[in-house]
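## Example pair
The file below holds two records. Each record gives the amino-acid sequence first, followed by its structure token line.
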Amino acid sequence: MDGTGVVLITGGSGGIGAATARRLAQDGWGVALAWRSGRERAETLAAELRGDGARALALPLDLSDAEATAAAVDALAEAQGGLAGLVTAHGPFIRMAHVSAIPPEQFRRTMEDDVFGAYHAIHAALPHLRRSRGPLVAMATAALGRYPATDMLSVAPKAAIAALVRGVAVEEGRFGVRANAVGVGMLSDGMFDALQAAGHFTESFVEKSRANIALRRLGTAAEIASVAAFLMSPEAAYVTGQLLMADGGYAV
């Protein structure tokens, strides 16, 4: 990388966000780990990356507030010499339930947290990405290619985010901005423990899920980070508007 600016990673204290920060820092990017509730994790990781010689910082960011998000992104770009790219990896804990069992208020809150958060981050970042010709990568879900029952609270917001990414790709390509999404498959880390503790990922459920994956195993956050790193890199200079599945063949 040319050392100009940093990549903003929303959800930078979470499993995929943290893994992506590690990989991008390894590849020479400066990274800003945005957090809402994971301050200690974000600050600890940023300090670790700085100790390894990377340019890294932790950034408090409430994506539910559009004005505050825009102000924070502007201030970050001003302080760091620009915004080199954006990765959206935030997202609330998702309760698995059939559509008939999801209260409308819970559906609304989930859409607001995930979709509006992504929109606020992307909208705030676009003027800076135009200047840097920087890439955008958004985390979506492999369930957009093969819907698993009880996963609507994940699929619906990620479908909207994937559509947003396509729109950005079409409209912003003339400014040199590339936009892609990653269809994240079932992982053995990240939210896995929380979903297991909540009773959603029972042993039987995990085994059935594994049997539906062509590679017959779960993925890792580090493997998702590798896909994001490719999409951020010059090697993907002619790739935009895509939903790249990283799911072990689940959606085939």
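Second record, same layout:
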Amino acid sequence: MNPRRYHVIIDETALTIPLPDNTIMRDQLRHILTMAALPHITVQIMLRSAGPHGSRRCGFQLLSFPDMEGRDLLHVPHIAGESDIDDPDRIATARRLFDSLAALALSPRDSVRWIENLLITS
């Protein structure tokens, strides 16, 4: 069985938050690099310089199940809990947003370089 594909876009801010002990963040960065090296995982970094975009206020997850065609799910965590949405139109809107975010973010290769540089400078 093939492993599930995973494509994540991480906002730069999440990786540059000052912490009392930068060991924790350095461990996280190393883990992200380890995961990014796997063939079924894509990591992209959204730089602050990309400007405002449709996902700064709220993250979301799109779940696709190849063995269950048409059963995609949009998962949205929010202040009151979380919502799972199976409406095809809302999923299509979220997919377009994700695709536009991926186009704005650093490429996977440049994202790895960016994380490596952050490790060196932190």
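Notes on the second record: The longest strand covers residues 6-11. The helical segments are 12-15, 22-36, 88-104, 108-121.
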